[in-house]
Design goal:
This protein starts with 15 loop residues before the first helix and ends in a 33-residue tail after the last helix. The longest helix is centred in the first third of the chain and has 17 residues. The chain is mostly helical. Helix 1 crosses helix 4 and helix 2 runs antiparallel to helix 3. Helix content is 44%, strand content 0%. It is flat. It has a domain of 74 residues.
Length: 122
């Protein structure tokens, strides 16, 4: 029987500390993903800047700023991108979507990319 776990990567077991590690890895992957909006990427960066220079906001607690910045960043990122990276980090295989041919019927909810133009009858 072949072991499908990549070498050097510990499988996800759950728990408090592994969940924090998973969250940090998820944030790193989302920060390096080009599909995530650049303005969203400013949230964790601003949280780290506050951690280094807390004089800007002396009332707010450090842990609250870090938690809020990382939480908002992950929540505001597109769901499909977050799910993709989370599944990869938890070593869950993602099935590939079948390629549709032109002859296949369009299912309800599918997006059809087309141009629209109105033809005026004379």
């Amino acid at each position: 029987m072949e072991n499908k776990t990549p070498k050097g990567i510990t499988p996800y077991n759950g728990g408090f500390f592994p969940e924090i590690g998973l969250r940090i890895k998820l944030i790193y992957r989302l920060m390096t993903d080009r599909r995530v909006n650049i303005f969203l990427k400013l949230l964790p960066v601003a949280s780290l800047v506050y951690l280094v220079i807390p004089e800007f906001f002396p009332i707010v607690d450090d842990a609250l700023v870090l938690w809020l910045g990382s939480y908002l960043f992950v929540e505001l990122c597109p769901d499909e991108i977050v799910d993709e990276h989370t599944k990869k980090l938890r070593h869950i295989e993602i099935p590939e979507e079948p390629v549709k041919t032109q002859n296949q019927a369009v299912a309800k909810g599918d997006v059809v990319d087309a141009e629209f133009s109105e033809i005026k009858e004379e």
